[in-house]
Input
Amino acid sequence: MATMITSWNPEKKHSDVERWICIYPAYINSKKTLAEGRKLPKSSCVENPTHQEIRDVLLAVGLRVGVENKLYSRERSKEILYRGRIRVQIKNDDGTPVKSEFGTRESVMKYIGESIPKLKTRQNRPADQQPQSTQASNKSKGKKGRR
Output
């Protein structure tokens, strides 16, 4: 996206980047609570999605996508892994959906939640995330002894 994004204006067309919907990875992260920014039920979400995975899924289905280097305001971690905002065009200039199956932002997010686990990069991932859960349990055991 080489164009400069300006402030929102009601006269802008649906094809202008400013009118595209925004999706942060936290919206579909099953590790987040509703208060932390998750927008869908956990059954429709994915564990720790990245903006690259979201972009790949949306490009594969044929939607126009833009990636911005933004951080979600409710995200506590400032790490590069959690950065990224995805902009997606879901409506044509006349207001009709670009793809009939994606009429709302919720339908786009549900599709992302269903498709990310099918990515080749996700096939080996559960083994990678095992050590993280054991480290958290070790910390809680250590604190129990201190009073």
